[in-house]
Amino acid sequence: xxxxxxxxLFKNLKENQLQELKNISIIKEYKKGSxxxxxxxxxxxxILLIAGxxxxxxxxxxxxxxxxxxxYPQELIAEIANFENMPYPATAEFMTSGKVVHIDYKKFExxxxxxxxxxxxxxxxxxxxxxxxxxxITNDIVLSSTARVAKFIYKHEEEFLKLKKNxxxxxxxxxxxxxxxxxxxxxxxxxxxxxxxxxxxxNREGLKSxxx
Length: 212
What we know:
Elements lengths: L1 H4 L9 H9 L1 E6 L4 E3 L7 E7 L2 E6 L5 E7 L3 E3 L1 H5 L7 E4 L3 E7 H8 L3 H27 L2 H11 L1 H6 L2 H8 L3 H13 L3 E4 L2 E4 L2 H6 L3
Antiparallel strand pairs: 1-8, 2-7, 3-6, 3-8, 4-5, 4-7, 9-10
Helix pairs in contact: 6-9, 8-9
């Protein structure tokens, strides 16, 4: 209940509305590597990510993953599939263990989408995803690999320290070898420092200067 109450989409709901929402929701836990949904699956639930890191990707004809988005709590996942009554356009896989609230979409549509505050917040959520895609395109065209890695580390330090190199490389659509070379470069620039089995940022401003 607290996961729903604290989510930005539902923060203005009254107590009886929250209870009604709870009645059409279930929480599921997932292990690392679990598939939340496959490309082509029918969207039946409005999905709220409340814990873990979720990767959205498509697979090319050679079986390679093409990462489209990486989600962190608290975010709606692939809500456009619900609104457009279309199959999921990509696959969602957990990069860490995670937890999700599944809300019965048909009942949610009947009971809540007439609420103007919720409708407006959903529009904002979709708008943010468009901005994200524009940012991805801009980064891939304008920023160098070093700048993109620096930006990721700066904005997602916890994930950088938690995830494996090949997982970070997949998120950034670069090879693990390229990532290793860039990390070595950041060490030489005295921006990163090796600390036991991980790294420590010792110059955040220097890191920021690489992508701004």
